[in-house]
Design brief:
alpha+beta, 3 helices, globular
Length: 102
């Protein structure tokens, strides 16, 4: 069952160019992972410092492999240096069927 994961982050305005470069590198690494389908980056219209990455994975297990990977951890450390708070991760499954925990 495919899932979508929303990763919401707030950044310092002076670092948005750097954010873009880090997120592009992270996407290229995620693309190498088994179970990766696609991702998009969205910017809040009311607060352009709020960035949401929406990624799609073949299963919760595929997402968890990426989430716990050393590659993602390295990108998270880079991003945390220029964030104004903690990232929020919201996993979603299509429809109302039961799914396991994340």
């Amino acid at each position: 069952m495919a899932i979508k994961v929303l990763i919401k982050r707030q950044f310092k305005p002076e670092h948005l160019d750097q954010v873009s470069k880090i997120l592009i590198r992270a996407r290229y690494e995620a693309m190498k992972m088994d179970g990766y389908i696609a991702s998009e980056t969205w910017r809040d219209l009311h607060d352009p410092n709020n960035i949401t990455v929406v990624s799609m994975w073949q299963s919760p297990e595929a997402w968890n492999r990426w989430y716990t990977s050393s590659q993602r951890s390295e990108f998270t450390v880079e991003l945390e240096k220029i964030m104004t708070g903690s990232e929020r991760i919201e996993p979603y499954a299509l429809g109302l069927q039961e799914v396991g925990t994340f």
